[in-house]
Amino acid sequence: MTDPELQRWRLVLGEPASAAGELDPEAARRDAALDWLYGRDGEHDRRDVRRGGGRSGGDGPSAMTTVDWLDDINQLFPKETVERLQRDAIERYEITDIVTDPEVLRTVEPNPALLRAVLQTKHLMNPEVLRLARRIVEAVVRDLMARMATEVRAAFTGTRARKPSRWKQARDFDVKRTLRGNLGHYRPDERRLYIETPHFFSRSRKHVEQWQLILLVDQSGSMVDSVIHSAVTAACLWGLPGVRTHLVAFDTSVVDLTRDVDDPVELLMKVQLGGGTDIGLAVRYGAGLIEQPRRAIVAVISDFYEGGSESALVRAVRELVEQGTKVLCLAALDEQANPVYDRALGQRLADVGAAVGAMTPGQLAEFVAEQVTR
User: Fold this and answer.
1) Which of 207, 274, 300, 316 has most Cβ atoms within 10 angstroms of its Cβ?
2) Which helix H or strand E contains 106, and what residues bound it?
3) Where are the domains of the chain?
């Protein structure tokens, strides 16, 4: 089998398509790596049984280890595919030795799926393994900080002024002035305008009032992405003019992590994912932190499947709204902002004045900046 298209279909369909022909050596290695992972799928086993096959012992080559598999997929697949395979291994098949085996942790390339796995399994790790796993946390958080800090802090740099600026930033590009200023470089024969001198807006700063931002983050297992992005967002906001940030994690109890906000790695290593949920307890704790109700934003980040009293939660949110505090009930805080939450309870919270929805970290920063700089 030499046709690349046939080889791809053979890899997609697996062993049932072997009649299409033999794989070349590299494709055969890819097939073995995919079968090591997806061959453990229950449906795959049922198909084997129906065909009269099934898994059995024998005198073939030794079984592939997790370390061998990781080495192979890094050699055989592009980075995006490797991350998908690792994510499926951890989240779909619960192959936890990817983040609990010291030999694996010394060589694995950090990525967000591995960070989530570390946070979900760190309670199983001995101190040496935890030290190695911390490398993954540090690397992924450093990448998130680099990407998010500019977006978050940009929200606080003021609004566009109409006067020119010498500072060249893409978000301040002045399209109209640039076009007018470079019309002399238009080439009719090519139907192209060549830009020799780009122009940019400046930004004006507004008066900044002191506000409190209180992030209440559900640390149940389903909220792991929001926990990660809340920690990084809080770190990006830390020290910005006009904002004092608090970060509180909760399940059926409340842990105030504010003193670690400037170190998101340390903060994430302290988070304990899983357990029940008492959102009302967290909201009441957050209310106790407020100094000036009309200068406070409480952002509750949860899937709103309340384990405590829903009526007590709704009452606590209504009291915050009535005293002039802005309440955000966010079903997700991550780069995708795909909300999954109890919509019936979300509607009850919206009915008493909370803003209910989902945001990216940048959108949350823009909302906070609008309140602080108005």
Assistant:
1) 300
2) helix 102-107
3) 4-143, 160-204, 211-373
Q: What is the number of other CB atoms lying within 10 angstroms of the CB of residue 80?
A: 9
The pair of three-digit structure tokens given for residue 182, joined into one six-digit string: 């470079």
What CATH code is assigned to 211-373? 3.40.50.410
Instruction: Give residues with Cβ within 8 angstroms of 102, minimum separation 6.
Output: 128, 129, 132
Alpha-carbon span 302 to 216, nearest angstrom: 8
Cβ contacts of 336 within 8 Å, gap of 6 or more: 360
Please state, in angstroms and rounded to a whole number, the distance separating the CA atoms of residues 313 and 347.
13
How far is it, in rounded angstroms, from Cα 116 to Cα 331?
Answer: 18
DSSP for 209-260? Answer: --EEEEEEEE-SGGGHHHHHHHHHHHHHHTT-TTEEEEEEEESSSEEE-GGG
Query: pLDDT for 138-196, tens place per residue?
Result: 999 999 988 888 777 777 765 444 556 555 667 677 888 888 888 888 888 888 888 88
d(CA 158, CA 206): 6
Summarised one tens digit per residue, pLDDT across range 251-299 is 999 999 999 999 999 999 888 877 789 999 999 999 999 999 999 999 9
Q: Where residue 57 falls among pLDDT bands split at 50, 70, 90?
A: very low
Mean pLDDT of 87-100: 82
Tokens coding 5: 């298209």
Strands (E), the chain: 159-164, 186-187, 192-193, 201-204, 211-218, 243-250, 254-256, 296-301, 326-333, 355-359
How does strand 159-164 pair with strand 201-204?
A: antiparallel
Q: How many CB atoms lie within 10 A of CB 279?
A: 28
Instruction: For residue 50, give the amino acid letter.
Output: R
CB 174 within 8 A of CB 201: yes
pTM listed for this prediction: 0.68
